[in-house]
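Q: Please design a sequence for this.
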């Protein structure tokens, strides 16, 4: 695992990639040369290492960033977040959502980093839930259902009218 050696820029773009979506994701994450870390903690069995979620700090224009995007776009490999947080702080924040409990209190893995899950989940959140989820994150991004556009999820600006929706979703066509 490459460790971050300096503070993140004013705002950085990160991918949260789901190793369970394809057998080559883990290998790509390990060999991409970008700052990355597993969202799971501790020593993991090899079969879990292969399917774990990974936080990868993307560098615009870097060949590794282009390779990850080209390989995974339209295949629900993961989501993206924009944040000024240091990668270690962002990882700690994102780890808070990995486990949830069902109505009976049974612990479950919450795969919020799957764009198919995020697209359904975010619009159902209350203001307090969105505040908790966003934390240091400025925006979440997910591919649209058909892969033809990127959906940007942002909290409503502070100056927005009170009746404005708490979550702004902006579909952005891909080039």
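A: Design:
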């Amino acid at each position: 695992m490459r460790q971050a050696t300096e503070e993140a820029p004013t705002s950085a773009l990160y991918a949260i990639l789901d190793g369970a979506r394809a057998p080559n994701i883990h290998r790509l994450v390990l060999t991409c040369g970008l700052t990355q870390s597993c969202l799971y903690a501790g020593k993991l069995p090899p079969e879990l290492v292969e399917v774990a979620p990974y936080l990868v700090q993307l560098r615009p224009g870097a060949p590794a960033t282009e390779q990850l995007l080209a390989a995974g776009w339209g295949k629900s490999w993961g989501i993206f977040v924009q944040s000024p947080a240091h990668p270690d702080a962002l990882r700690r924040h994102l780890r808070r959502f990995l486990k949830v409990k069902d109505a009976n209190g049974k612990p479950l893995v919450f795969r919020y980093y799957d764009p198919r899950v995020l697209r359904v989940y975010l619009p159902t959140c209350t203001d307090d839930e969105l505040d908790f989820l966003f934390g240091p994150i400025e925006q979440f991004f997910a591919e649209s259902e058909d892969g033809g556009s990127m959906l940007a999820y942002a909290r409503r600006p502070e100056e927005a009218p009170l009746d404005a929706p708490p979550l702004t979703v902006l579909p952005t066509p891909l080039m």
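Q: Thanks. Anything notable?
A: The radius of gyration is 16 Å. Residues 13 and 82 are 5 Å apart (CA to CA).
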